[in-house]
UniProtKB/TrEMBL annotation:
Keywords: Membrane, Transmembrane, Transmembrane helix
UniProt protein name: Metallo-beta-lactamase domain-containing protein
Boundaries of every Metallo-beta-lactamase domain copy: 225-390
InterPro entries named among the record's database cross-references: LACTB2_WH (IPR041516), Metallo-B-lactamas (IPR001279), RibonucZ/Hydroxyglut_hydro (IPR036866), Sec-metab_biosynth-thioest (IPR050662), WH-like_DNA-bd_sf (IPR036388)
SUPFAM superfamilies attached to this UniProt entry: Metallo-hydrolase/oxidoreductase
Taxonomic lineage: Eukaryota, Viridiplantae, Streptophyta, Embryophyta, Tracheophyta
Superkingdom assignment: Eukaryota
Cellular-component GO terms for this entry: plastid
């Protein structure tokens, strides 16, 4: 599969070889709104890095990277523009290529296919900085030990450590664990100990995988003997929702884990529970934790044993480490999240996704008012990272959550405007507000529109003449209208394409006809 490449540079301190250089990462753009801009993520530090582009034609990189041949089976570094990329990286810290001495290949790390875009594969190289160079204020010398303290003993709003330094250096320095994840599956371990494994699932586009979370600390303490936990175990699995063709891989993961397993399900959707039966079969002693509203919707064929009901604010203990259960309704009425306390990382289920906005399920108690409340609850937690079940880990949690608030409020304003302009049915509103969106996405959008209208009614913002009761009865008419619009829209697109090709072919024929006529005239 095609991929994007990134160059990450490990610059060693000439006065202390145990230290390497980290750079303060650039924040996302501000919203220009006082409320959203008041929620500020703490500083994020990581290895200096930049995009690594392919060289054109037969050109080759002029910078020699010692040991580059060791990864030649996967990537040819001489065909990548190392020269320009290295210049950009060193410019971030106020240095030049000559300040790094000899460059050596360190490792090549392929990112899992989180989707929907291309994965980003990272090339790590090392260099030792020439002594006596002054660094910019946005740089910091760090050791592996200091990085680990930042990662594993965090407090809300404290400095954060990015994934490149973890994947490039930290994970290698930790005690090697048993092979839990089958080699066929790529995964990302960030923060350390938390394995995020995207596996194919029956999820909605644009995604095609669900992130399976596996957490199995190496050093098990006696803290799990305390009575303050609703459940305790030696390993944790979150949302086993893979398709049947990946059940063998899931079975291998379960077999490699300790027997005392906790299974946590954020909600009942098929792409989050399809692998439950495999866990139950492989390890009947596993304990299932979920909300009672979720459990009511999980079929006996998926899980026939008992379960532990959680409603929020409970703590669970995995290998001596504490995780806090967070009630997070909105997507469904039983939706839950999970906070890993020591790293302050928040597993958010489907409240957030890696790209685009989340779909709220009106058939399963989805609620727009609760969705807003949950978003603010997450903001108050000041998480260091958001781990969605679809897409990449998000490194700017508050910015992402505020982006969701802004998007939902923007949609709400558009929906209200459509109603004030005379829209009465679900189809009227969706076709107005989502006119620039692919028709295949209108079904999903309709669910959110229904919940937005309910929320507008709750806030007493709807015009007096608008009947919410009559509006809800228009759902069947929306389906018939959508089918007609989808077919006619597809026909119009195909007609335009056909017309374009017809015009193009006609143009080519006309050009040849003119040339033929000219040649014939000249030959007379």
């Amino acid at each position: 599969m095609a991929a994007i490449h990134n160059l990450a540079v490990i610059l060693k301190n000439p006065l202390n070889h145990a230290e390497f250089l980290l750079v303060k990462q650039t924040r996302p753009n501000r919203f220009g709104d006082e409320e959203y801009d008041s929620f500020v993520d703490s500083e994020l530090w990581d290895l200096p890095s930049t995009r690594l582009n392919l060289l054109e034609g037969e050109s080759e990189s002029q910078i020699v990277v010692v040991g580059a041949e060791s990864c030649s089976e996967k990537i040819n570094l001489r065909k990548l523009d190392i020269d320009s990329a290295l210049d950009r990286v060193l410019d971030q810290v106020g240095l030049a290529a000559t300040d790094g001495g000899e460059w050596k290949f360190w490792k090549y790390v392929e990112e899992p296919e989180f989707g929907p875009g291309f994965p980003v594969h990272n090339v790590f190289i090392t260099g030792q900085l020439v002594a006596g160079k002054n660094l910019q204020e946005l740089c910091k010398w760090m050791s592996v030990e200091t990085c680990l303290s930042w990662l594993l003993e965090v407090k809300p709003s404290s400095n954060r450590m990015g994934p490149l330094v973890v994947v490039g250096l930290i994970n290698d320095s930790m005690q090697p664990a048993d092979q839990i994840v089958p080699p066929i599956l790529r995964y990302q371990e960030y923060p350390p100990g938390v394995k995020v494994i995207p596996i194919g699932s029956k999820t909605a586009k644009p995604f095609h995988t669900t992130n399976l979370i596996v957490f199995a600390p190496e050093n098990v303490s006696n803290e799990n003997e305390k009575n303050s936990f609703v459940a305790s175990g030696d390993a944790l699995i979150v949302d086993p929702g893979c398709r049947s063709e990946f059940h063998k891989e899931l079975q291998k993961i379960v077999a490699a884990l300790p027997r005392k397993i906790i299974v946590f399900v954020t909600h009942h959707h098929r792409d989050h529970v399809e692998g439950l039966s495999i866990i139950q079969k492989c390890n009947p002693d596993a304990t299932l934790l979920t909300h009672e509203n979720t459990m009511r919707r999980i079929g006996k064929g998926d899980w026939s044993l008992g379960y532990t009901s959680v409603s929020g604010a409970e703590d669970i203990c995995i290998g001596g480490q504490r995780l806090r259960v967070i009630f997070a309704p909105g997507h469904t009425d039983g939706h839950m999240a999970l906070l890993h306390v020591s790293t302050n990382s928040l597993i958010v289920g489907d409240h957030c996704v890696g790209q685009g906005s989340s779909l709220l399920d009106f058939r399963s108690g989805g609620n727009m008012s609760q969705y807003f409340q949950t978003t603010y609850k997450f903001l108050e937690l000041s998480p260091h990272a958001l781990i969605p079940m679809h897409g990449r880990v998000n490194l700017w949690p508050k910015h992402m959550l505020c982006g969701y608030l802004k998007n939902r409020r923007s949609r709400e304003t558009s929906i209200l405007k459509a109603i004030e302009n005379g829209a009465e049915t679900l189809f009227d509103i969706v076709s107005d507000v989502y006119s620039d969106v692919d028709r295949s996405a209108w079904i999903a959008a309709a669910s959110n529109v229904r919940l937005h209208v309910d929320y507008l009614a709750q806030q007493d913002k709807l015009p007096e003449a608008f009947s919410v009761q009559k509006f809800h009865k228009t759902w069947p008419w929306f389906l018939s209208g959508w089918v007609w619009e989808y077919i006619s829209y597809g026909f119009r697109l195909n007609y335009q394409k056909l017309r374009t090709w017809t015009l193009l072919i006609s143009g080519i024929v006309a050009i040849f006809a003119v040339l033929y006529s000219v040649n014939k005239f000249n030959s007379k």
